Amino acid sequence: MRVLAAMSGGVDSAVAAARAVDAGHDVTGVHLALSRSPESDRTGARGCCTLEDARDARRAADVLGIPFYVWDLAERFETEVIEEFVQSYEAGRTPNPCVRCNERIKFAAVLDRALALGFDAVVTGHHARLDPDGTLRRSVDPDKDQSYVLGTLRPEQLGAARFPLGDSTKAQVRQEAAARGLAVADKPDSHDICFISGGDTGGWLRERIGSRPGPIVDSRTGQTLGEHDGTFAFTVGQRRGLRLGHPAPDGRPRYVLDISPVTSTVTVGPAEDLDIRRLVADRAVWPHEGVVSCQAQVRAHGGVVPAEAEARGDELVVTLVSPVRGTAAGQAVVLYDGDRVLGGGHIRATAG
Amino acid sequence: MTYLDHAATTPMRPEALAAYAAVLADTGNASSLHASGRRARRIVEESREALAGVLGARPSDVVFTGGGTEGDNLALKGLYWARRRVEPARRRVLVSAVEHRAVLDTVQWLGAEQGAEVELLDVDAAGMVHPDTLAAAIERDPAAVALVSVMWANSEVGTVEPVAELAAVAHRHGVPFHTDAVQAFGQIPVTVGEDGPDAITVSAHKIGGPVGVGALVVRRGLVLEPLTHGGGQERDIRSGTLNTAGVAAFAAAAATACAQAPRESVRLAALRDDLVRRVQEKVPGAVLNGAPLGGAPGGPQRLPGNAHLTFPGCEGDSLLMLLDARGIECSTGSACSAGVARPSHVLLAMGAGEEHARGSLRFSLGHSSRAADVDALVEAIGPVVERASRAGALAGMTGT
Ligand SMILES: Cc1ncc(COP(=O)(O)O)c(C=O)c1O
Description:
The structure holds two protein chains of two kinds.
Chain A: E1 2-6, H1 11-22, E2 26-33, H2 51-64, E3 68-72, H3 74-90, H4 97-116, E4 121-123, E5 128-130, E6 136-138, H5 147-150, H6 155-159, E7 161-162, H7 170-179, H8 201-209, E8 214-218, E9 224-228, E10 255-260, E11 265-269, E12 275-285, E13 292-297, E14 305-312, E15 315-325, E16 332-337, E17 340-351
Parallel strand pairs in A: 1-2, 1-4, 2-3, 4-7, 8-11
Antiparallel strand pairs in A: 5-6, 8-9, 10-11, 12-15, 12-17, 13-14, 13-16, 14-15, 16-17
Helix pairs in contact in A: 1-2, 1-7, 3-4
Chain B: E1 2-3, H1 14-24, H2 35-55, E2 62-65, H3 68-86, E3 92-96, H4 101-113, E4 117-121, H5 131-139, E5 145-149, E6 159-160, H6 163-172, E7 177-180, E8 199-203, E9 214-218, H7 244-282, E10 287-288, E11 301-302, E12 306-310, H8 316-325, E13 328-329, H9 345-349, H10 354-358, E14 360-364, H11 371-394
Parallel strand pairs in B: 1-13, 3-4, 3-5, 5-7, 7-8
Antiparallel strand pairs in B: 2-9, 6-11, 8-9, 10-12, 12-14
The structure holds pyridoxal-5'-phosphate.
Pyridoxal-5'-phosphate binds next to helix 3 of chain B.
């Protein structure tokens, strides 16, 4: 099989490519250039699109003895991921750009191009398992599992994907990289949003969007407690950084409950008001009939809660048997049966 | 393997390899006073004389460098600094818009950091700088011009520039003229001439010598500030222990390349014409960029080994990858630092649209090229273009 290995310059994708080579495939490595003006070195927080990452990817490909190219997807990434990220925040949502990148870049633009060029599949270093029947499952490493950011992919997208790392823990992947002589074996993981170097999302958004001041209002009393200079700096469920002058009457901490970009209002209140019992997701992938009992995950690295899900047209209505706290519109909801991914969608609305 | 990328680097010629290996086995610093040093010195000076011979220069005009990039830097910075020292008003630096990055990046640096006023000279649709264009540019403010640099032959589309005329225009205004002859040397006659360029950059690895050796031919009387300071080995313009083996191999390669060039250029041009004709038979939409084949006298000429084609609706990246997978090696033109191909500045300067520029490939032939290389490309190109145009359609390329 002719496979294209997407190589970020990190240890996971390097080992994934190596395993594809070992499996006897004809492997070509590709590094996706996603940044228009890549920084030459990695700064404190870790991204995946510096020139150094491109060099690391190339070096790994050379060690594996496979051809390697850089594909310039900066323009696509800018419009499909970065601009959508900004618009989403402007609309008071909290987007997950990794989900979006998988949906629109890795398993769309890259996959389509690969197939057009005669490749049969795209290999990535995601920590998730993909059964021969197309079922997506969690990685054996619960700490590194990435099935959540893949959970909204359509079956035809997953059909041409290969995730060779799902049966291994991160520690095993690192060990294997070292044994294979890959210099990226102990390269630190990337955590932050790759296009926001330094990790200061609020500051980055302020630069893009500008200052849009407004009030911070108490949900119970309607009283204005303070001012902010842009709703984009807030996420539903957030507690820190509110900088409210006076304590709440009951002395308990307040959380962001709601963000209204139209009036530039941030509403805060007690923790219990964050409880969500119902949510509606759109652009759903849900190949099931009727009410399905399952477990729901509403943020990356979050836990699961028991839930019931049912399709209503293109939308997915999810009832949570026990509430989750601080779920933001814009995030993905991914539904599991044990370690099997049943489907998912994008949270449009939530209710207590 | 089918190697069609001789403009990037060409295999070492047997004569050069033999000279290289023989000298590498010897100890000797050409600056030393003892017998080993004298032996090395003799090899360096004989090589200098041989090189000067084929370039029509005097041996003392030849300054050995670490390659073409260094030669360009030394010529441009060295000249600019030297001129500025005596005539601070001379800040204008005129170079063609189609130069190699070794020239473009250097003058851009002079502009950003050293007060130069850089002006890019327009080219015509074939990539040629007209002497009138240069004359008009100089005449806008002749007293402020520090130097002019126009390459002898273009590294992407192979267009040969009218260097003698351009140099004459510069000289009419008393302005020194540099040319990057890295691509031209060894393929077409490159000589200093009566009223020709004042400085010429050449590089060994493009003519069958080793990488990392080159020369800047500097006409007597032209003052250059050095880039590197140290032992002053090369006329105090260039410091560093001389690369005796590299210089010997360079001279051997130059002697062979220049001796064979009259015959070889005819052979390569025939092979190249065959390549273009048969590729266009397989892909009727393919467009030849640059000067036409068999350029009419007086019209733009191209290097004999160069074929530069645009495949409408395809991305050069995709074509290169698909050909590479079939063992055929060529180039998309200017690779940038992260390996991301940008539309070639050369094609854009020639007036091509961005899509046309992105869909181009350079095939360059050299001394080891044979008819079988062309056959292999002709056999592969049809299916490759078909696949690449499918990917191009996804990327929104219209193919018109
Ligand atoms: C026109 C031109 N100038 C300069 C250079 C750089 O020469 P070198 O590789 O010897 O530094 C090249 C080669 O890429 C070239 O084609």
